[in-house]
Amino acid sequence: MYYVYILSSWTRTLYVGVTNDLERRLAQHRDRTGSSSFTHRYRVDRLVHFEGTPNIRAAIAREKQVKSWRRSKKMDLISANNPEWRDLNAEWGRHLLCHPEAP
Fold first, then answer.
1. Distance between alpha carbon 52 and the CA centroid of its chain, in Å?
2. For residues 103 and 96, what is the distance between their CA atoms, to the nearest angstrom?
3. Contact by Cβ (8 Å): 49, 63
């Protein structure tokens, strides 16, 4: 599976990324190893939304689409599935908001 994900800081600074190993990528963001300088600088490490697809091209296209959105539209996407903006990584085994195909 390939995942498009949105991370947030406590102040709701957003980061959109794509990966084929969400658990490993989240660990990199949290440990500040292999993560972008943006997520490190702004402490953006809370998983607030993710979508899964078996198609890498679809995942990359979806990442580009979401990145091009205004901030308000990204926030609406997050709030639709995660209204409390919980850190989904903390609930990894119990609660998944994984969408089989990106819209």
1. 10
2. 17
3. no
Asked if 48 contacts 80 with a C-beta cutoff of 8 angstroms, the reply is: no
Spatial CA neighbour of 92 closest among 29, 41, 27: 27
Residues contacting 90, CB < 8 A, separation 6+: none
Could you read off the pLDDT tens digit of each residue along the chain, which spans 103 residues?
999 999 999 999 999 999 999 999 988 888 877 766 888 888 888 999 999 999 999 999 999 999 999 999 999 999 999 999 999 988 765 444 444 443 3
Domains of the chain by start residue, with CATH: 2-91 (3.40.1440.10)
Q: How many CB atoms lie within 10 A of CB 9?
A: 14
| Cα–Cα distance measured from residue 94 to residue 67, given in angstroms and rounded to the nearest whole number | 28
Task: Give me 92's structure tokens.
Answer: 């990894």
Q: State the Cα–Cα distance between residues 64 and 66, nearest whole angstrom.
A: 6
The pTM assigned to this predicted structure is 0.85
